[in-house]
Amino acid sequence: MGASLHSPYAVRFKNNPVQRTLKESDTQKSGSNPSPTLEAAGLRKHYGRTQALDGFDLTVAAGTVHGLLGPNGAGKTTAVRCLTTLTELDEGTATIAGLAVRRRPRAVRERIGLVGQFHAVDEALTARQNLTLFARLSGLSKPKAVQRSEALLEAFALADAATRAVSGFSGGMRRRLDIAASLVLTPAILFLDEPTTGLDPRGRATVWQAVREVAAAGTTVLLTTQYLDEADQLADRISVMDHGRVIAEGTPAELKRRIGGDRVDAALADGGRLAEAARVVGDATGAETSVDRDTRTITVEVADGGKALTSIVRALDAASLEVDDLALRRPTLDEVFLHLTAPAEDRDTPRTALTSEEAR
Amino acid sequence: MTTTHPHPVIAAAPGLRDRRSNALREGWLIAGRDLLHWVREPWGLVFGLAFNLMLILMFGFLFGGAIEVPGGGDYISYLLPGMFALAMLFGLEGTMTAMAEDAKRGITDRFRSLPISSTSVALGRAIADLANSVLGLAVLMVGGLLIGWRPTTGPAEIALGVLLLLWLRFSLLWLGIFLGLRFRGAGATTAVQVLVWPIGFLSTVFVSAETMPGWLGVIASWNPVSATATAARELFGNPTGVTSGWLAEHAVLAASVWPLAITLVFLPLAATAYRRLRR
Ligand SMILES: Nc1ncnc2c1ncn2[C@@H]1O[C@H](COP(=O)(O)OP(=O)(O)OP(=O)(O)O)[C@@H](O)[C@H]1O
Ligand SMILES: [Mg+2]
């Protein structure tokens, strides 16, 4: 998937300071750029009695992809809307490319691209008509707008669907069109608010690929998501937010160190031997286990998933404990929050009570 | 993960922009979106036009025989200018719905995130809806001519009559934009769809105020739609159904002042509602 998004060209750009290939490493890129593309400090915004932003701070270095990770209602959309001039802040200062968001909204709009949480393209129009409209509204002459639209359709693998009404598009295609429409003027920073929520895996993959293309071209990206693996896959740095403020920030590697490694879930065939199995798994991995009686599942946090999986299988087999299911997985969002918000001694009581729905 | 080469298109140099922001140009582009809608999905437009034609046939022939026009005159000739004014009133609902839908779907947010003038979105709505009303009026006039309506005055009066009709529509644009931005729920749109009917009926569109019970007649003759209908009748040389009273002498004045008042009230309110999207 996504092969069609690949560019056949290898071109150098003078005004593209950050030549990069994504995800080569988790370490922060150069880190020496003196002026970040986005700087926000102490942002506050309330709706009635809800404090949607409550002292929100964020710095995004030029040329990086920054992930903003948080559960439903954390304030991600509010943050994006305030930073993109759509919503007025109560308090705080924010600058984009050195321009104050509150004082110079018009100038800021010239330098941002926004892909909102809800699709903002015209359903009744074709992909081409949408792009041409937004290109001309962004200030391109008609011939340039047409040219730019064609190029963007090509770049986002939408050329074949150019003359079809958007109402017939798949979720992934819509998102890509949305992204293309936000890149007409090559923004200093592209905001993506939950770009893959509600997409099927295939749509998700194509959107990820599109985001990688954008990032590889040197555009700074701020991306919000509820999925840890998405932030991990795409972002150079991640800010975890909850209740309107950032509660942790770092590279994916740093955060993973704090969150702990992967998890192994072992579902036992025989619920009667759960305690025994937990001990066996604990001995095999040298880690603390947790047991869920309802699903007969033992969960253990492991540093090296592959190795741990093998030793768990061996140990369970040696004890002739039969498993129904054995899975290696990333921590879920509520496990992340558990680690980031609870003091080390009592990690069993989460500060944020996430419902299973919120934790997806 | 696959590595990615910078794509020349995506990485195109910033500062591509070659037009300065200009509200009129942007309004025109945004209105062009509606014109594309008409071309791509013409049924909504066709149905709207057919509906107005159906109304003139229904009232003209079904009830026409039973209705007497005070001061004399043929009912079809009396009815048609009234129907023109009514069509202007009914346009309100279209403005409101379009505004509410765009705001709900995030299209308005997309526009608001672009470096365009803050008046462009409303201007686009205004241009598109006025174009729609001009078309609607033209179709109604042709339909009217086919069933026997005849303007009997000169081109200047006829043109002024058309202008006053569009002036009413213009004023209602701001009411529609205000309502659409302020009340975005589906319920609000339905409420307006329903409420335009009593407002339309409590006017002199279908029957003269002089044939109504006293208090109803007073309401009907003070209805802005009646002012425009009466002025249009006068200017087209059709029976007005008004034999005495203030409106008999000052219909054109009333049809000029009412929409002005509506505009003065609702244009600022619409602007405020647009600004409040930032809340
Ligand atoms: N326009 C609004 N009016 C009232 N309350 C709002 C509004 N927008 C957001 N809120 C509230 O502010 C809080 C933060 O909402 P926000 O949409 O920013 O969260 P989010 O992180 O984007 O969540 P999600 O993952 O569901 O998109 C929530 O409690 C929400 O109910
Ligand atoms: Mg959101």
What's the architecture of the largest domain in chain A, going by CATH? Answer: 3-Layer(aba) Sandwich
Order of secondary-structure elements of chain B: HHHHHHHHHH
Q: CATH homologous superfamily of the largest domain in chain A?
A: P-loop containing nucleotide triphosphate hydrolases
Average pLDDT of chain B, rounded to a whole number, is 88
**How far apart lie the N and C ends of chain B?**
41 Å
Instruction: Indicate the CATH class of the largest domain in chain A.
Output: Alpha Beta
**General shape of chain B:** elongated
Q: Report the span from N to C terminus of chain A.
A: 25 Å
Count of discrete domains of chain B: 1
Ions, cofactors, ligands: which are bound?
A: adenosine-5'-triphosphate, magnesium ion
The number of distinct structural domains of chain A comes to: 2
Radius of gyration of chain A: 23 Å
What percent of residues of chain B adopt helix (DSSP H or I)? over 70%
Radius of gyration of chain B, whole Å = 22 Å
Strand order of the largest sheet of chain A: 6-7-8-3-9-10
Shape of chain A: globular
Biggest pleated sheet of chain A = 6 strands, mixed
Strand content of chain B: under 5%
Mean pLDDT of chain A: 83
